[in-house]
Amino acid sequence: MDINKENYHNNSQENESTVHQNNKEQNRTISGINDISRSFWDEINNEINSNDVPLWRMWR
């Protein structure tokens, strides 16, 4: 393999690894946001179902 092809091959693998790592980080971030959102709405629904003062009324 000549040097240019070897450099291209190594850079390509490195870029692929970086993209894969970024995708994993993005998926982890999205998962965290979804967990927070889910727990937020669970809390709202618990307040409403228990006939307690809904949180949205306290925010006004």
3D architecture notes:
The protein is mainly alpha-helical and 60 residues long. The chain has one domain. Helices cover 85% and strands 0% of the residues. The model has no long low-confidence stretch (mean pLDDT 76).
Keywords:
mainly alpha, rod-shaped, 60 residues, 0% strand
In short:
By secondary structure, the chain is mainly alpha-helical. Helices cover 85% and strands 0% of the residues. It has one domain.
Structural class: mainly alpha
Distance between the termini: 69 Å
Percent strand? under 5%
Radius of gyration: 24 Å
Q: Tell me how many strands there are.
A: 0
Helix content: over 70%
Order of helices and strands: HH
3D shape = rod-shaped
Number of contiguous helices: 2
Task: Give unreliable regions as ranges.
Answer: none
The biggest beta sheet, please?
A: none
Indicate how many domains the architecture comprises: 1
Average pLDDT value? 76
